[in-house]
Amino acid sequence: MSEKPFRLAVRAVIRDEQGRCLLLRRSPVNKGFVGQWEWPGGKADPGEAFDEALCREVREETGLEIELLGVVGAFDFEMPQVRVAMLCMEAKLAGGTLRLSEEHDAHEWVPAAEVPNRNLVPRLKELAAIYAEKGAKQHEH
User: Fold this and answer.
1) How many whole angstroms separate alpha carbon 54 and alpha carbon 87?
2) What would the pLDDT profile of 91-135 be if each residue is shown by its tens digit?
3) Number of domains in the chain
4) Are the beta carbons of 98 and 66 closer than 8 angstroms?
5) pTM of the entire structure?
6) Is the separation of the CB atoms in 6 and 28 below 8 Å?
């Protein structure tokens, strides 16, 4: 059996002025996880820098401009053809007007502590829980 290749995917945890995170709900146009919530993002194109890919995907999915702040965390999961390495970055809103692409049919700004309670796409829940704990600590200062 040949080892599946890895593909890089990136997601942005976008925070607003109140510290809430943007979640998007996957629409029926997607192959899987319809109706489940996720942070915006997608796969980097071959040869595309991951930070540029993330800003592009966020722009395509939400119409928003973001500024990346740092790494939230990473995990990997299996797809039929590839293994996906998922890198999640923290970002702040830098402009634009929110308008969803056909990939998502709803959005919500959710306090970080509440994100893990949502019906998230697989593997995002653990990372969201760690982020919620870390995020809560950062706002205590």
Assistant:
1) 10
2) 999 999 999 999 999 999 999 999 999 999 988 999 999 999 886
3) 1
4) no
5) 0.90
6) no
